Amino acid sequence: MPVWQPNHFATPFRGCHVNHSKTLQNRKSVALLIETSNAYARGLLDGIIAYQREHDPWSIYVGEQGRGAQPPLWIKNWKGDGIIARIETDAIATVVRRTHLPVVDVSAARLVKNIPWVETDDREIARLAAQHLIERGFEKLAFCGEPQFNWSQWRQQHFTEMATEEGCEFFVFEGKSRFNNGYSWNAERRRLKKWVQNLPKPIGVMACYDFTGQQLLDVCRELEIAVPEQMAVIGVDNDVRLCRLCTPPLSSVIPDTHRTGYQAAQLLDQLMQESGESEECILVPPSGIAERQSSDVYALDDIDIVSALRFIRENACKGISVADVLKAVPLSRRMLEHRFQKLVRRTPHAEIIRIRMERACRLLRETDLSLAEITSRSGFANPDYFSVAFKNYMETTPRNYRKKNRLSRRN
């Protein structure tokens, strides 16, 4: 490992294992221009660590920095083999260009063209958030964004498209850039407060990321707007500490930052070995939603259907059938099917299958459990039936789904 020197502020990455069969001279030197100040970026670093533990180690240089910080001083004269960077400022873009090294960008800003790019899939993030709110019966949706960021613009665009397709009434708050001269948080908070106050209720709101979600919840508390009954809020990034500090705790879409970092490291490794160029774009889908109190509500006037939805959500993976749902609500099968279809836009059986499939997909991605164990934990009768149902639902086999979507998460 390189030795830390106070005058260049670069430190070797402790996540890398030393392979004594290789000399330091044979190792590739890689710089990580990634901030260490937020959960998303730290997830990228975890993915890079995982890739390193499975392959030939690099000598890695990383400096402690925040989002939007100036490039570290040591990078200007650094002689290495490749870079993984969150290129979010012109200064970082300039430094990266001047190195003439293989680079993988893990930012949505796209300040340096014609280089490979690995990022979260914002269409899928928006789809999950919209689906989450629509499934809870919200017919009015809103998006609270920060348009200075590409990822916020893309999430707003896709969220708007999905809300429109579902026939939902839609509203948008476009925040002002914190990086503009004259920006005032007090003035911005007044704008946000007025917007929230004027929104029709009940309404489901997607915040472009968790920090904006926290601001929304603070404004709701100040205005005495009941969350989630009058306004349900969902963020993005699943910054666990921030989400739990919110009142009430914030639901959030979970980007697969581990996989994003892993694939960025894999792509850079290929570029350094082949001495080639690439403009490849890899978009990594989110891994799910962390459901917390800020969206734990069904915005439906039909108490019986709300009870049915809660019963299904709590028991779908225990092998229940529609007959069991009928025991939990005072409705005939015909009336349950009719009212459920009208309000939820699918049948009770389809809702049971949807929740089971979500559990199965999560277990395939995140565990080493056998197919038989996943079958049992997802509420299916036997592995053969599960495999057929999974293929019909996901258009691929459980084995292929796991192979495509799962990465090693060993510590």
TrEMBL record:
Pfam families: HTH_18 (PF12833), PBP1_XylR (PF22177), Peripla_BP_3 (PF13377). Keywords: DNA-binding, Transcription, Transcription regulation. Residues 306-404 form the HTH araC/xylS-type domain. InterPro entries: Homeodomain-like_sf, HTH_AraC, HTH_AraC-typ_CS, LacI/GalR-like_sensor, Peripla_BP_I, XylR_PBP1. Signal peptide: none annotated. The keyword Isomerase does not apply. The keyword Transferase does not apply. GO terms for molecular function: DNA-binding transcription factor activity; transcription cis-regulatory region binding. This is Xylose operon regulatory protein. It comes from Bythopirellula polymerisocia.
